[in-house]
Design brief:
about 400 residues; about 85% helix; mainly alpha
Length: about 400
């Protein structure tokens, strides 16, 4: 018996190490790409002043990255389906870093737009492929590792925007963008070592779903889109809210960092809520809190507002963890990879396009009305998740 355990143990150790390396690779790529995505927020006031943009114009520039990343989820995942996880993750990171290189070059407003589109195209590959790598590696017990993967994105969101905001008073914005590009090249090199060469064996994804279950996935996508729209709408206005209260670039960086740190904490908090309240109860609690706390930040001075931002981050960003972990439970046609790509298409596309609408609302009225529109979007999710309850009960 001892001899058999000794012979089996190295294989078990190697398998466990391989799983951890795959998870670390996926998490590293996710942290970078999510850091790239939200690391653009500190630049929005700078670009508005330099290029004479309105709120809607700022949102449209932001959407060049975000909507490109969302719109290419499905075709990007299909394009790299035959590539190994290593090749897919390295390719996505190199393309995104190249987009930041283009933005850093003195090519004017056109160069900025081209760079944003190129960077968004690179990030579109990472999301579905990284999620599928974690799912295939840990199936059928992938919910926990998927939570870790989801959490890693918030680490990037908490660090890169803060670093960019701290550097902007010292350096011009193009050198800061250039440093972000160098970081991407470094992560691509690290992925060459961490990411697996071979695609893990495909675990059964579950039976094909039809009828009510398919409708449940569509409703889950819609809820995810509204949740992301509310979050990105508020993030559009947050730098301007802080500036209006006398805060400079360091205060913007601090505010974003506090919000994203709270969002990272929200992943664990919502997991606990999900265990005790279920998917429907936890989503209702977080979305109601999101709407109320967004409204509260409109009336608080700078210091109390900064104190409240981590709490808002828990509710604002934590819901996504519950929704994301529910995707494998409502997979249409048993294709988990395609389900993740479709889900990301919906939520990322909404996150890129919805702020344009919020920006247009603010341009036609004022900033306060735009923020209230983001809060109202979060409140609308409550009746929507109640409609999802029957589909969850069938699983």
């Amino acid at each position: 018996m001892e001899i058999a355990e000794t012979l089996v143990s190295p294989r078990h150790v190697y398998a466990a190490q391989s799983k951890r390396r795959s998870l670390v690779a996926a998490c590293l790529a996710h942290a970078l790409h999510d850091g790239y995505t939200d690391g653009l927020y500190p630049f929005l006031p700078v670009w508005q002043a330099q290029f004479g943009l309105s709120y809607a114009g700022v949102a449209a520039v932001r959407a060049l990255y975000y909507a490109t990343m969302g719109g290419l989820q499905v075709p990007g995942a299909r394009l790299v389906r035959a590539l190994s996880p290593r090749a897919a993750l390295v390719l996505s990171t190199l393309v995104a870093a190249t987009g930041f290189v283009v933005m850093a070059l003195p090519l004017g407003f056109g160069g900025l737009c081209v760079g944003l589109v190129l960077a968004g195209a690179g990030s579109s590959i990472q999301h579905p492929r990284g999620s599928l790598l974690v799912t295939d590696t840990y199936a059928p017990a992938a919910r926990g590792p998927l939570g870790v993967y989801n959490f890693s994105g918030d680490l990037g969101k908490a660090t890169l925007p803060a670093i960019a905001a701290l550097l902007l008073p010292i350096l011009a914005w193009r050198p800061v963008i250039g440093l972000m590009a160098l970081l991407g090249l470094g992560v691509a090199f690290a992925l060459l070592t961490l990411a697996p060469r071979a695609v893990p064996p495909q675990a059964p994804s579950g039976e094909a779903t039809r009828g009510p279950a398919r409708s449940g996935f569509a409703m889950l996508m819609t809820i995810g889109a509204f949740d992301t729209a509310s979050r990105m709408g508020y993030l559009l206005f947050l730098p301007f809210l802080i500036h209006a209260r006398g805060g400079g670039s360091p205060a913007v960086g601090l505010g974003l960092a506090l919000l994203f740190v709270g969002g990272a904490l929200g992943k664990a908090t919502c997991s606990w809520l999900g265990e005790h309240l279920g998917v429907v109860g936890s989503v209702i609690a977080t979305e109601a809190a999101t709407a109320l706390l967004i409204v509260a930040t409109l009336f608080l001075p700078l210091a109390p507002m900064l104190v409240l931002l981590p709490v808002l981050g828990v509710a604002l960003n934590g819901t996504s963890s519950v929704l994301y972990g529910t995707v494998p439970e409502l997979v249409p046609n048993g294709d988990t990879g395609r389900a993740f790509a479709l889900f990301y298409t919906g939520v990322i596309g909404a996150g890129g396009l919805a702020p344009i609408a919020y920006g247009a609302i603010a341009d036609r009225s004022n900033q306060t009305v735009g923020v209230l529109a983001a809060a109202a979007t979060a409140a609308l999710i409550v009746p929507m998740v109640l409609a999802l309850r029957p589909s969850l009960a069938r699983r």
